Amino acid sequence: MVAVHVVLAVAVLGVCVGAAVLGFVADRRGSAGATVAHALALAQTVLIGQAAVGLLLLSDGRRAPDRLHYAYGAIALGVVLSPWFYAPTDGPKRLLWFAGTTLLAGALAVRAFMTG
Asked: What is the 3-state secondary structure of 4-64?
């Protein structure tokens, strides 16, 4: 199960950075399509899956060597889901909110990976 957590961690890093870049490029061009929306949703889904596997490991008694690992993981999950509550409802700024928070969640996932 630890191997699954590590594989998902690498997937989180790649998907978050890729989705954020797609979002920023789409915003710059002024046209966001379904691909960008699906990439941003995939980043959220992979982060939720990563947190779920982490909770399963925690319930099995396996703990991270550094307690900061849990903080970075929880904050990354909260950051990537925050635009659903705080982003403007319409307009190009909504896409920037999702792309920016996805990039920040990827950066926090890097820190979580380094501590755990």
From this structure: HHHHHHHHHHHHHHHHHHHHHHHHHHCCCCHHHHHHHHHHHHHHHHHHHHHHHHHHCCCCC
Task: From 108, 27, 34, 19, select the one nearest 72 (Cα to Cα).
Answer: 108
- b (16+ CB within 10 A) / e for 18-30: ebbebbbebbeee
| Model-wide pTM > 0.85 | yes
Parts of the chain with a pLDDT under 50: none
Tell me the C-alpha distance between 83 and 76, whole Å.
13
Q: Does residue 113 sit in helix, strand or coil?
A: helix
Q: What's the burial of 50, exposed, middle or buried (CB within 10 Å: 0-12/13-18/19+)?
A: buried
Per-residue confidence (pLDDT) for residue 21, from 0 to 100: 96
Residues ≥6 apart with Cβ < 8 Å to 115: 64, 65, 66, 68, 69, 72
